[in-house]
Amino acid sequence: MNKRILVPYDFSKASEHGVRYAIDYAGSLPGVDLQFCLIADQEDPERFEEARTRISSGISRIFQGELSWTTLIPGSVDGLLEKCTEEKADMVIMGTEGSSKADANTKTAELVLKAMFPVLVVPSGTEEEFKLGRIALVLGSNEIDDPNLLHTLLQIARRFNASVTVLTIASESDHFGYTEPEERNEHLLEYYLESFYSHHVYIKNEDVVAGIFDYVDAHDIDLVTILPNKHVKKGTPSEGRLTRILAQQSSTPLLTIEH
User: Fold this and answer.
1) Residues 236-245: pLDDT tens digits?
2) Domain that holds residue 190
3) What secondary structure letter does DSSP report for 34?
């Protein structure tokens, strides 16, 4: 299980959503620690103390993990990545305002593309009532580069007793599900996701992003998951365009699982 979760907080409304989601995500089960990283342009002891008091008061008494604090001054994507390494974070949960512009490059998207650990992005429009019962894993037609990445998804599905639907969207559907890589993926999914694996959906759509969002909205998905090909061990790494767009435009929490 992701035992140490780092939660960036830069005093923005978007980061408030990340804080609330992280607290609910950690819940009452033992073995999950939360570390909040206060981010500002300069030291402000009074403001930092007020934030610590307010965030701490929102944590239930049944929380069994360790609660800790750190600061990042000034804030930057590279600085946050270094902080995650220093603090040995297993995962980051962060809120984001997002952007509807296709050519935008937000700090959240930059972090997701550079991170070598799971990042859970919480859009500012996420419902306040926490739920994580339905997960959609977005896969291409290529063979899964590192099946061990599915273990992180299994841990989450097991923790919340969530079902995982695998979603593949492409402009051509003549060979959906019948290529050798896809057949190997199916065996991997059944093996690694155990009984939490529900089924595989193939959708023909020339606009992959629109296809994902349409499915997520129509089926009340609580978490979209993607295995970016930015740091693949086999084959050619991608530029991360789909990952970047999803990190910026998804209205549903997004989990990226990297090497």
Assistant:
1) 556 688 999 9
2) 134-249
3) E
